Model the fold of this input.
Amino acid sequence: MAKKIPLRQCVGCGEMKGKKEMMRILRTAENEICLDTTGKKNGRGAYVCRSRECLQKARKNKGLERSFKMSIPGGVYDSLEREFENLEAE
Done:
């Protein structure tokens, strides 16, 4: 039988995609927000497509705030965008 692919919803565009195709954004126990490139770290995860547009949509529609049930300062989004750019450059 074919293995089921875990689907996750993008907090930006709302599309369902395979977990492997997406970036995981993590809230740690200390309420820090960071990009989880391994997808294995402990904490509450939210997923976003691997495109900058989706990250900006998530910023506009407060997708991460809803997922993490907390307010997120603009600086956090800026650092996530910077991490995104670094990954795209690789």
